[in-house]
Amino acid sequence: MARPSIVPIALTLDDRTGYTLWAPPWEEDGEEWQAFLGSTVDLPADINDDDPEAPGPTAVVHLFPSPAALAAFCRVNTDHDLADHPVWPVVSTLGPEDLTPDEDHRFDLDGVYDVVAENPDRWAVDELAATLDIVGRLAECCDTPAEDDDDEDDDDDETAFESVAELVSRPEAAALGLGIDAFLGRDGEEAWARLGTAIDELWEDVLEELDDHLDWTGAGTVSLEAYPSAAEEAESRVAEPEDDDEDEDLDGTPARPAAGSTAAAPAEAATAGIRTIRSGSELTATPAAVAAAQEFWEAVGILPVELVVPDGAGLTLRCYVEDRARFLGREGQVFLFPTPVDLARFCAGDEAHDLTEIASWAEVADTDTLPLPADQDRYDLVEISEVLGEVAQGAGGLVELRALLQPVEGVLDLAEYADLPRVQQQLGADAPLGRAVARADSDPRAPLAAEEAPALVSAWQQIVEDIGTALVFRSDLRR
Pick from 53, 124, 132, 234: most CB atoms within 10 A? Predict the structure, then answer.
């Protein structure tokens, strides 16, 4: 079985950002649990309440103003809900760089209104899905039942998070797990509008319910004034590191965060799949730089793509012509470049390739905008091999089927462009891997069973080998 994990996350609420830890569901003594870094405390009565009464023991999540403050707390404190987690001895030794959340684990609760106010795209849908998911998990862990044995008529479904429960139960919220396809067309637009209405009606109450369980003192170690505003926190992350070699400032290997939080709670209602897919990428770029670059690449209809395969990681370009994928390459061979700078140099050259005839190619050849891929256009074929191998060795139930979807998306496009019939066969409706992908489309959060994994491992290895025959790593343009 895969090892339990602890993930650093950041929450932005009321224009301040706090850092904490989340332990995705893990199994212990035959029972599934999940938790956040927190504890149960006795909160004082609210003197501003018309009928002040102490709420009694309350589960809270401890938030810290920086990864450094979080790391300092973890080194010396064991009076919290993660102290007995199997990997806590490792986490307690980590420094700030290892406890800095990646972009997938930063949740802007203040920004939800802005997301639903715009037309849906895949980034908005994914961001909103992740935000509602973490809100639901926080509610699950903090929703401890009141200890009142005198009232035997209490409803078993009673919750302190009524607004959270109502929001996540809406069909439109559930549809977020299906991705952008659920919000396309007339029906999709109406579903997005209904989701926006639900957010307008419930989000303030959701935040109020959550805030009662968020400890903005770092377990009594800091004051509220220590927390950065959203603007300050964003500015600190966008600051570019100084580098004398301007061409190589995007080539460094990123530090890996601790792999996969407060009052520990049985995860009876939690999703089973919890394996965090780590990227084998060696590309680093700030979120602001990627977002700025995407404006140009989306406008020209040609997107940067990153592939991670056994031979290494590389960047290329992809567009769609009459709904068929076309890559930067020639005669079915995809060109991969080690850095955005190398790819940009090639684009500015005059070598013939299959994107030359695209109407917007002249803009690509002339731009100074670096080709920085968005997370949705990065495909790690190596990591999914490792994940499937872990499941085959007994880690069933710890991987969601949706882990297959993004790598398979990239693989299908490559197979279409390079004409790789065996890849398409392995992903066909009658093949084991194809059936697993079909289930992932319909029920992305369903767990991958250990008994089906060996067949999937074999199929995926064959796919990766075939994809490798269509990749050409280009390093001949470096200077």
Answer: 132
Confidence of residue 476 (pLDDT cuts 50, 70, 90): low
The type of residue at 56 is: G
CA 169 to chain centre: 21
* Burial (CB count <10 Å: 0-12, 13-18, 19+), residue 79: exposed
In angstroms, the CA 289 to CA 369 distance is: 10
Q: How far apart are CA 114 and CA 124, in angstroms?
A: 10
- Contact (CB, 8 A) for 378 and 433: no
Same domain, residue pair 392 and 364: yes
Strand, coil or helix: 88: helix
Whether residue 242 lies inside any domain: the answer is no
In a domain, 247, yes or no: no
- Structural domain span for residue 416: 281-479
Query: Are 289 and 313 part of one and the same domain?
Result: yes
Sole residue written with tokens 């319909």 = 442
- Does residue 421 belong to any structural domain of this protein? yes
Number of structural domains found in the chain: 2
Work out the average pLDDT over 76-94: 88
Do 218 and 298 share a structural domain? no
Has residue 83 been placed in a domain? yes
The 3-state DSSP class for residue 218 equals coil
382-385-387 Cα angle (round to 5)? 115
449 burial level (CB within 10 Å; 0-12, 13-18, 19+): middle
Give CA–CA dist 227/74, Å, rounded. Answer: 18
pLDDT of 450: 82
Q: Is residue 260 within 8 Å of 33, Cβ to Cβ?
A: no
Answer yes or no: are the C-beta atoms of 313 and 306 closer than 8 Å. yes
**What pLDDT score was predicted for residue 51?**
54
**228/305 same-domain check:** no
Sheet holding 214-215: strands in order across? 38-43, 56-62, 214-215
On whether both 224 and 287 belong to a single domain, the answer is: no
pTM of the model: 0.53
